[in-house]
Amino acid sequence: MPNRYAYLGPEGTFTEAALRDLRPDADDRARVPCDGVAAVFDAVRAGVVDGGVVPLENSVEGGVTTTIAELIKGEPLLITGETAVPVEFALFARPGTVLEDVKRVATHPHALAQCRGWLARNLPDADAHTVSSTAAAARAVSEPGAPYDAAICAVIAGERYGLRALASGVGDRSDAATRFIYLSRAGTLPEPTGADRTSLVAFIADDHPGALIEVLNQFAVRGVNLTRLESRPTGDGLGSYCFCIDAEGHVAEARVGEALMGIRRVCRDVRFLGSYPRGGRATEIIPAMSPRSTTDADFAEAELWLARIRAGAVD
Amino acid sequence: MPNRYAYLGPEGTFTEAALRDLRPDADDRARVPCDGVAAVFDAVRAGVVDGGVVPLENSVEGGVTTTIAELIKGEPLLITGETAVPVEFALFARPGTVLEDVKRVATHPHALAQCRGWLARNLPDADAHTVSSTAAAARAVSEPGAPYDAAICAVIAGERYGLRALASGVGDRSDAATRFIYLSRAGTLPEPTGADRTSLVAFIADDHPGALIEVLNQFAVRGVNLTRLESRPTGDGLGSYCFCIDAEGHVAEARVGEALMGIRRVCRDVRFLGSYPRGGRATEIIPAMSPRSTTDADFAEAELWLARIRAGAVD
Amino acid sequence: MPNRYAYLGPEGTFTEAALRDLRPDADDRARVPCDGVAAVFDAVRAGVVDGGVVPLENSVEGGVTTTIAELIKGEPLLITGETAVPVEFALFARPGTVLEDVKRVATHPHALAQCRGWLARNLPDADAHTVSSTAAAARAVSEPGAPYDAAICAVIAGERYGLRALASGVGDRSDAATRFIYLSRAGTLPEPTGADRTSLVAFIADDHPGALIEVLNQFAVRGVNLTRLESRPTGDGLGSYCFCIDAEGHVAEARVGEALMGIRRVCRDVRFLGSYPRGGRATEIIPAMSPRSTTDADFAEAELWLARIRAGAVD
Amino acid sequence: MPNRYAYLGPEGTFTEAALRDLRPDADDRARVPCDGVAAVFDAVRAGVVDGGVVPLENSVEGGVTTTIAELIKGEPLLITGETAVPVEFALFARPGTVLEDVKRVATHPHALAQCRGWLARNLPDADAHTVSSTAAAARAVSEPGAPYDAAICAVIAGERYGLRALASGVGDRSDAATRFIYLSRAGTLPEPTGADRTSLVAFIADDHPGALIEVLNQFAVRGVNLTRLESRPTGDGLGSYCFCIDAEGHVAEARVGEALMGIRRVCRDVRFLGSYPRGGRATEIIPAMSPRSTTDADFAEAELWLARIRAGAVD
Question: Which segments constitute the ACT domain (chains A, B, C, D) (predicted)?
Answer without folding.
Answer: 200-277
